[in-house]
Amino acid sequence: MSARLTPRPAAPTVRPARARRLRTAALSAGLATVLVAALSACGDGASASAGGSTLKWTSSYFPSHWDPVVSGSGAQFRELALVYASLTRTDEKGNAVPDLAESWEYNDKGDQITFHLRSGLKFSDGEPVDAQAVKAAVERAQKQKNSALFGDLTSIKSVTADGLDAVISLTQVDYQIPQLLGQRVLQIASPKAAKSPTELDRNPVGAGPFVVTQLVPGTKAVLKKNPDYWDADNIHIDNVELTSAPDASTVVSGLQTGVYNFADIDPSQADAAKKAGLDVFVQPGFNASNLSLNINKAPFDDDRVVDAVRHAINRQEFVDKLTFGYGEATDQPFPKGYVAYDPKSADTYAYDPEKAKKLLAEAGHESGDIKLDLVIPAEDPQAEIVQSQLAKVGITVTIKIDKNWATPFFAKNLTFSLYGTTGRDSAVQTLTAHFGPNGPLNLSSPYEPAGFEAAVAKVRQTPLDAPDYTEVLRSATRAGLESKALVFTYSSPNLIAKSKNISDLPKNPAHIDWTGVTISGGN
Q: May I ask which residue range the UniProt record assigns to the signal sequence (predicted)?
């Protein structure tokens, strides 16, 4: 998972009938040039065909794995979505809408949901897209030893396949499932290809809008349009050349010279991209950075020290120094305006260094007493800001870089770290990932704030179209924010620079959707 960032979307419409039915209509430049030229020469010239429109996308998060079960739900899911489709996808409001499934319905109790798949679909290897493929995908995500998704699927007890109907039995009432089983968590691979996950990682086979024709691991992928994709009529790009981005400072020049025509960029590069005559597309995201504290270890086993850190953090400094005007301060894992954002919790721990000093004194600490190692995976300017802000209240921070940081972080062995997420499509999943006793982003596991479990259970039990859904969800956010394990700092949208001949993309939160996108002038 990246130590950078993002948070969450919203919900579909559930119509109460005898069975609750949800049926939503579907819908340096020279260096860069040398690199891409060399990549194009790989594979005996296997590259995008000369005809038609070609998307030349260079990405800072080129997938390290093309098996979606192993790749997980981090930022790279956007690139795997070129190849794989899911039961649902996310629209511009963050709602779950049909993808491979054309409709779905809950039983009366809310502990079983049936997805009805579109007829006549097939994977790029010719295998049918049916309920058996859904069953295989869920079970593999739950059971494969190196699965990065098993923790996201704890609500699923079993899947029964009946032709094109996938009946999912749940361990609890959970109306979040359509949100959950979208592109982030259940990109569906051909069951035949997935029998060898290692081979699938090298030769991805899905039912998405494009088919991989060449893959150079960690470096380049070449794809062509999939004529059998269910919504192929609305895919107007013929070929894709996806490359791993070179140094950020060369991306803009590569876009200027036509080496690329689409790239994710750092906020520091946005002005240069605009001055170069490129479109800078601000994609809504659910990114949120935070300080992660382990309250099972000193000094954070003292609530007064935790509160002192909360009041010592000046969130606006992160925004001013790191986002170049594109971000905003946040004290929650959700952006303002999103359904799960809780206005009542805003600014609960305002920046107040004098109060922080007082709390530390009450806890018996003189200035300089507390010495902390801030362990991070790579150099990060966020760490220097944290170091400086805590020094102002008398806490000494030493920044330590551990390239294997993920191992002690997810084993909950660190005392103090930084984290950032790209969020989830289910607000409940975001909450439990941060605040739940087994949450991967909860450095203080198995700790959870009082009342959080009950608040989350109530959200799961509330249909997404219920009149009180928003307040129930915000109450769960409020309960989660009582956690002493996380101090949120800032959020920033996803920034993309593109050539002007690429039309605007749908503004689906955190997703890149190629539906309806055109590239004028061919190549």
A: 1-37
Residues 263/57, Cβ–Cβ less than 8 Å: yes
Bridge partners of 85?
A: 188
408-438: pLDDT as tens digits = 998 999 999 999 887 788 899 899 989 999 8
Q: At 412, which amino acid appears?
A: K
Going from the C-alpha of 405 to that of each of 2, 31, 224, 297, 417, the distances in angstroms are 11, 31, 37, 18, 9
Residue 171: count other Cβ atoms within 10 Å of its Cβ. 12
Token pair for residue 136? 């295989």
Give the DSSP per-residue string, 197-223: HHHHHHS---SSSEEEEEEETTTEEEE
Contacts of 298 (CB under 8 A, 6+ apart): none
Nearest to residue 506, comparing CAs of 60, 91, 13?
A: 91
Phi, psi of 86 (to 5 degrees): -135, 175
Instruction: Give the residues of the chain that fall short of pLDDT 70.
Output: 1-51, 73, 522-523
Q: Is 456 within 8 Å of 436 (Cβ atoms)?
A: yes
Contacts of 60 (CB under 8 A, 6+ apart): 244, 245, 248, 264, 266
Separation of alpha carbons 29 and 39, rounded Å: 15
Q: Is residue 335 within 8 Å of 94, Cβ to Cβ?
A: no
Buried b (16+ CB within 10 A) or exposed e, 143-166: ebeebbbebbbebbeebeeeebbb
173: Cα separation from own chain's centroid: 25
Please give the pLDDT value at position 51. Answer: 56
Task: Enter the DSSP assignment of 399.
Answer: E
- For residue 75, the one-letter residue type is A
Sequence-distant (6+) residues with CB within 8 A of 361 are: none
C-alpha–C-alpha distance, residues 434 and 45, integer Å: 46
DSSP secondary structure string, 73-127?
TSTTHHHHTTT-EESEEE-TTS-EEESSEEEEEE-SSSSEEEEEEPTT-B-TTS-
First to last CA, the chain: 35
Q: Residue 44's closest CA among 199, 204, 201, 214? A: 214
CB 481 within 8 A of CB 348: yes
Which helix (DSSP H) or strand (DSSP E) does residue 428 occupy? helix 427-435
324 CB-contact burial (10 Å; exposed 0-12 / middle 13-18 / buried 19+): middle
pLDDT score for 73? 62
Prediction pTM value: 0.81
8 Å CB contact between 99 and 91:
no
